[in-house]
Specification:
Layout lengths: L21 H4 L19 E5 L4 E3 L7 E7 L2 E6 L5 E7 L4 E2 L12 E4 L3 E7 H10 L1 H27 L2 H19 L6 E3 L4 H8 L3 H13 L3 E4 L2 E4 L2 H8 L3 H8 L3 H4 L6
Antiparallel strand pairs: 1-8, 2-7, 3-6, 3-8, 4-5, 4-7, 9-11, 10-11
Helix pairs in contact: 2-3, 4-7, 4-8, 5-6
Keywords: DNA-binding, Transcription, Transcription regulation
InterPro entries: cNMP-bd_dom, cNMP-bd_dom_sf, HTH_CRP, RmlC-like_jellyroll, WH-like_DNA-bd_sf, WH_DNA-bd_sf
Protein name: CRP-like cAMP-binding protein
Length: 265
């Protein structure tokens, strides 16, 4: 699963687990001297990070941009007494964080959920490449806009959706992202989130989340066990989440539609 050895020996990104995402693709010079269609025009360092480890802490100074190659992670805010609000989940191809393109720090922290492979790129070099090309600037801009829209949706979740609507909405958005990455197998999705993670993402308690998951199971909408999820009745989840699914997904990561393994329909 973790292909760090394939990134060494002069073949960076040659076996990208994330399917060569648009952010990375935008940093490639197709006419590079190595004649390598996946050789980025920026320096790269790869790190395999164990589960439940902080990668970046809020407001810490950094000179790097972080791209997630494989695994699961999340961004979060935390109160002084330790209560946590998960803002977003990262899967293969996502990058952290838009503000690091401009500033030397981010207002969010970043932590792994599973064992993960990250690529670090120098911010100065990434900025130089972004500003060289209108196409690259457009791709990065769309990613940043999509991230802001996802945060707006989180505000709607926390402010106006009830508990089962919040959990349904989270399941739908995550599984559709996994569909586009091509990580679904026989209708099964990797789903490493614990009840505490779902609670921190939806503003609920773990006990309340457990009740919602049990309810979805009893109604025959989902199966969830051993870190894998199967959706049995997507229509009911969509109805419950009260979202126009295609609209929400277009906002979430619009640039994936052009280059993903599974085209948006």
């Amino acid at each position: 699963m973790f292909l760090k050895h394939l990134y060494e020996g002069g073949r960076p990104c040659s076996a990208c687990p994330a399917g060569y995402p648009p952010f990375c693709r935008s940093l490639v010079n197709p006419k590079n001297e190595h004649n390598d269609p996946r050789r980025l025009e920026v320096a790269q360092d790869f790190d395999v990070i164990e589960p439940h480890r902080n990668i970046y802490l809020r407001n810490a100074r950094t000179d790097d941009i972080y791209v997630m190659c494989d695994g699961w992670a999340f961004t979060f805010l935390q109160t002084a007494d330790g209560r946590r609000q998960i803002v977003s989940f990262l899967v293969g191809g996502d990058f952290f964080a838009c503000e690091l393109l401009i500033e030397q720090n981010s207002g969010l922290s970043l932590r792994t959920l599973t064992k993960s492979l990250f690529c670090r790129m120098p911010r100065a070099q990434v900025r130089e490449q972004v500003l060289k090309s209108d196409e690259t600037l457009n791709i990065v801009g769309k990613i940043c806009i999509a991230n802001e829209r996802a945060k707006n949706d989180l505000l709607l979740d926390l402010g106006r959706r009830n508990a089962d609507e919040r959990v349904a909405h989270l399941i739908l958005t995550l599984t559709e992202r996994l569909d586009r990455l091509g990580t679904t197998r026989d209708g099964n999705y990797p789903f490493p989130l614990r009840q505490q993670d779902i609670a921190d993402a939806t503003g609920l308690t773990p006990v309340h989340v457990g009740r919602m998951i049990s309810k979805f199971r009893e109604f025959g909408w989902i199966e969830l066990s051993a870190g894998h999820l199967r959706i049995l009745n997507r229509g009911e989840l969509v109805r419950l989440g009260r979202i126009e699914l295609k609209r929400a997904l277009r906002q979430l990561n619009p640039v994936w539609r052009a280059g993903s393994r599974r085209p948006f329909r």
